[in-house]
Write a structure and sequence with these properties.
The complex is a heterotetramer, with two copies of chain A (165 residues) and two copies of chain B (411 residues). Chain A has one domain: Sufe protein. Chain: A (Alpha-Beta Complex). Chain A is 44% helix and 14% strand. Chain A has five helices and three strands. Chain A has a three-stranded antiparallel β-sheet with strand order 1-2-3, covered by helices on one side. In chain A, helix 3 packs parallel to helix 5. Chain A is globular, with a radius of gyration of 16 Å. In chain B, strands 4-10-9-8-7-5-6 form a seven-stranded mixed β-sheet, with helices on both faces. A four-stranded antiparallel β-sheet of chain B has the order 13-14-17-16, with helices on one face. Chain B has a two-stranded antiparallel sheet with strand order 1-2. Chain B has two domains: 136 residues, Alpha-Beta Complex (Aspartate Aminotransferase, domain 1); 255 residues, Type I PLP-dependent aspartate aminotransferase-like (Major domain) (Aspartate Aminotransferase, domain 2, 3-Layer(aba) Sandwich). The radius of gyration of chain B is 22 Å and the shape is globular. Classes of the chains: A alpha+beta (165), B alpha/beta (411). The interface between B and C is large, with 95 and 95 residues. The complex binds pyridoxal-5'-phosphate (2 copies). One pyridoxal-5'-phosphate sits at the interface of chains B and C.
Chain lengths: 165, 411, 411, 165
């Protein structure tokens, strides 16, 4: 049985107590995307400023949720801010790969069908503290909520942007 | 008349309470989500499968006759338990949600026209909201809501205006979030005076109080077995027979027909008209055994025990945590069910529940399928401890002790 | 590869087969109505209730997580068993009847307009007739039928014309009366070529043959647990995800929503979008155990055993009763399931079944929820013996012996 | 456990093998009423000639069913033919009373709510042979099918008739 210390690492509690990039951005021009966790009622709003050259120049988080969803969002915001959209996307993939080991197990019987896609060269850094969440399957959706919401925001930005030459 | 429950003995009837969690005894405080099952219920189902399972209402051989007899006997037991005048009005569904959908889709489509109004309340479970929201989309009906007032009670000051001209009033008999026991009879009387039909979601009520459909003043009453010591996979919709008789079928298939031709069909009589396909037979037998178990305890005693335990919980939590805890719903234990929703410090209920689990204490965290009510309370989620016949003061103490540990962890 | 079933050992797995009836051993020949359950299935459900019951998809505490895991694991097992590409398309219903109603009401209402045609067959169970007859009444759709031809087979000579312009083709993969195994793939291909969607009622097929939804060429496949060694109270509708994704919800309530406001709601993702309210959790666990049990036997072996036993039954009954018995359906055992409907002398099936029961032999008598087919066959009812993994040649002999006694009584 | 001899009395088998009053009557003027047993598919048609002074002057049975439903219909036809509508109705009540002991038990838990209404003075005669059916609950509907159909026919006749002075 996994213990609570796997879940509530110190760095997670720190981001929970002191969330980074909390707030809103005027929208438009920022993209504003909402995410729900239908199971627990957590709601997150991601505000996203993407520059013409495809860089996430600013990003803010509002909404409410548990320590896991809040700290995950906070860490995400730190990790993504300033990155290019492409870099942000590979970070999303890498993070979801870390989480999906178990998300798969919820859906299939022990044998993940899609092998975890490693994103070589992507450093998750502090985000690795969230790995312990994998042992608490119900909480995985808390951890991935902000990331799915970000992904949706990037998709919207891509669609709005003039198609790349 | 009202005997005190012997909880120590009752606990022994529930095998799961013997199972430890992470080295602690199981302190199960989530019965409002789903109750645990006594041995007698499990045995009744196993015995059914091991000795006489067959499909019902069709076979002339002995075990099929016995299966049919047990199935219909369960219906009669439920009828008696809720004070229904006859088993004819007792329809087996898969859960209370299906029962409410049955009313919305069968009664609703036959009786509601665009612009017609249905009155609900702000404290409803999604099960009594979404079916009507779907009808709103399909038929363009109007939905009105009795608002939440002070102390978790419905605000009835505007009832006369709200009920005026509505075709149906649907309300819960006990809130699964606040424990509120709305004055169903008073609202039903107002509804009937306005010419409306009354649907009562009694999912939380039937397991915990003496139920009499006539006293409630209801035309339809829904319940769900898994919250009243019964199995999953079965619920009941009771309806006034005159209404059910006039309603068109809901789902089509075997069992619910009298005759089928390639160009049409004639529905069966009540209650089978609303039971399409093979029904939950073993589950009905289990529900019958659950009703027997509860009757054995006596529903007055069940209710008295819950008032006492809820009083103890409200007192203990307030004394031990003061301003750190906010308890939603009525303050007076006699005015509410054994459902205690609370906010603890500024901690998220998910985190509270997670830490409590570490100590074997099971409480629910989330919106409890009542998102509109959550918004109305101004919270995203709550933690909720809920009690049943197998809970005692030691369980409440375990909850309080584990809340202390939660405090420590997030300090 | 195909191992012979060890029926003697299998019989020991089914507690009910140990129970005597009126001093005779139980010769259960009504599995097409509902199968018996092996100990492993009963144990899985009891163990679930005794160790980890809680409501699913909501709790963060350990037993709720485990309940959710077991429930979703059962879904994955079913997906694998029927060759579904992913569990997302596997929707738990209360029986196959509900699954077909789901398609008729959700897909049907969204896609069918007055005058649109749906093609069924004359051999359908009421479960795949009445939902469409209801739509006909509500929407004014046209129903067409593939007729019954020679030797219990569908007459496909007119298929091209029949399928032309239809929006949906619904058919059984195995007749519960005749044992016919229609050429589902061929009909599905014709349907798809005509732009129609294909719904397969596999209630009798999945328990007895290797099932692969892609090979069947189906867009929707329904099954029901109680006919495949599983419990009552649960069925499955598998659907192509692209279709399910576009369909409006069927029943509204908890679990099937993403968000609910007082003025509207957003549905959840698949498969939960179609699972309103507390699902049949223990029943899903039981169904998972049934799938495990069948997989352990091997579905090729199950099918081979049934062909062999059916051949023996057809031979024995014909040899012993000659012109006194008329057996409906295909004569070739490899072309049919283990469902043997017969007329015996001029005796009414009810009387036959009643006398057989005296000797412990359980067969079904009646219209088998297929009244249009009965009329087509020119009979009011038939007696039906149906076989499963726990039946052997001694059971067939017991049937024949008891038929002799029936003859005597009415001589 | 009841034995088959309780069910298949000799007189029942006799009426089954040699059904009385089998056939049809031209309708109109006869009333023609259909009855179904949805559980087993039995269908019965009762043809009923009621005279101006309220007497069942002729009655025919067609349709098909099991030995119990057929013999019950046959015995009913013999018993009712020539009787007044009122006498026929008390016969129906008496017969259903004999059957209802057990029909009740199917619906309630052993305690019939409606006590069986005895029809004093009504002789069931041969029909008493059907009492054994009560021990086979599923077959009760077979035995009562023709009686319910007759009752419906009498109701129709009553409605059509000029109201009694
Ligand atoms: C071919 C077929 N379809 C549908 C059904 C209905 O199954 P259920 O009653 O479990 O919904 C049955 C069995 O009764 C069947 O044999
Ligand atoms: C008040 C109320 N209504 C309806 C329901 C729905 O019950 P079920 O999920 O069994 O349909 C619940 C419980 O979830 C409830 O608490």
């Amino acid at each position: 049985m996994p213990g609570l210390e796997d879940l509530y690492r110190e760095i997670i509690l720190d981001h929970y107590r002191n969330p980074r990039n909390r707030g809103e951005l005027p929208s438009p021009p920022a993209y504003r995307v909402e995410g729900f966790n239908p199971l627990c009622g957590d709601e997150i709003v991601v505000y996203l400023d993407v520059s013409e050259d495809g860089r996430v120049v600013d990003l803010r988080i509002s909404g409410q949720g548990c320590s896991i969803s809040q700290s995950s969002a906070s860490m995400m915001s730190s990790a993504v801010k300033g990155k290019t959209v492409d870099e942000a996307r590979s970070l999303i993939r890498a993070f979801k790969a870390m989480m999906s080991i178990h998300e798969q197990r919820l859906d299939a019987d022990g044998q993940p069908e899609d092998a975890v896609i490693e994103e070589p060269g992507v450093k998750l850094g502090d985000l690795e503290a969230l790995q312990g969440v994998v042992k608490f399957p119900v909480r995985i959706k808390c951890a991935t909520l902000s990331w799915n919401t970000l992904q949706q925001g990037l998709d919207e930005a891509d669609q709005a942007a003039p198609s790349p030459a | 008349m009202t005997m005190q429950l012997d909880v120590e003995r009752i606990k022994k009837d529930f095998p799961i309470l013997d199972v430890g969690v992470r080295g602690h005894r199981l302190v199960y405080l989530d019965s409002a989500a789903s109750s645990q099952k006594p041995q007698a219920v499990l045995d009744a189902m196993t015995r059914y499968y091991e000795t006489t399972h067959a499909n019902v209402h069709r076979g002339v051989y002995a075990i099929a006759e016995e299966a049919t007899r047990l199935f219909e006997e369960a219906r009669a037991k439920v009828a008696a338990f809720i004070g229904a005048p006859s088993p004819r009005g007792v329809v087996f569904t898969k859960n209370v949600t299906e029962g409410i959908n049955l009313v919305a889709q069968s009664w609703g489509r036959a009786n509601l026209r665009p612009g017609d109004a249905v009155l609900l309340t702000e404290i409803e479970h999604h099960a009594n909201l979404v079916p009507w929201l779907m009808l709103k989309e399909w038929l363009g009906i109007e939905l009105r809501y009795i608002p939440l007032g002070e102390e978790g009670q419905l605000d009835l000051s505007d009832l006369d205006r709200l009920v005026d001209g509505v075709k149906l009033v649907g309300l819960t008999a006990m809130s699964n979030v606040l424990g509120t026991l709305p004055p169903v009879r008073r609202i039903a009387d107002a509804a009937h005076a306005a010419g409306a039909v009354v649907l009562v979601d009694a999912a939380q009520y039937v397991p915990h109080l003496v139920t009499d459909v006539a006293e409630l003043g209801a035309d339809f009453v829904g319940l769900t077995a898994h919250k009243m010591l019964g199995p999953t996979g079965i619920g009941v919709l009771w309806g006034r027979e005159s209404l059910l008789d006039e309603m068109p079928p809901f789902l089509g298939g075997g069992e619910m027909i009298r005759d089928v031709r390639l160009d049409g069909f004639t529905p069966n009589e009540l209650p089978w008209k609303f039971e399409a396909g093979t029904p939950p037979i073993a589950e009905a037998v289990g529900l019958g055994a659950a009703v027997d178990y509860l009757s054995g305890l006596g529903m007055e005693s069940v209710r008295a025990h819950e008032i006492e335990l809820t009083a103890y919980a409200l007192r203990t939590l307030t004394e031990r945590f003061g301003d750190d805890i906010v308890i939603h719903g009525p303050a007076e234990p006699g005015m509410r069910g054994g459902v205690v929703s609370f906010s603890f410090k500024d901690l998220h209920p998910h985190d509270v529940s997670q830490v409590l689990d570490e100590w074997g204490v099971c409480v629910r965290a989330g919106h409890h399928c009542a998102k509109p009510l959550m918004r109305r309370l101004g919270v995203g989620a709550t933690a909720r401890a809920s009690f049943y016949v197998y809970n005692d003061e030691a369980d409440v103490d375990a909850l309080a002790d584990a809340l202390d540990k939660t405090s420590d962890l997030f300090a």
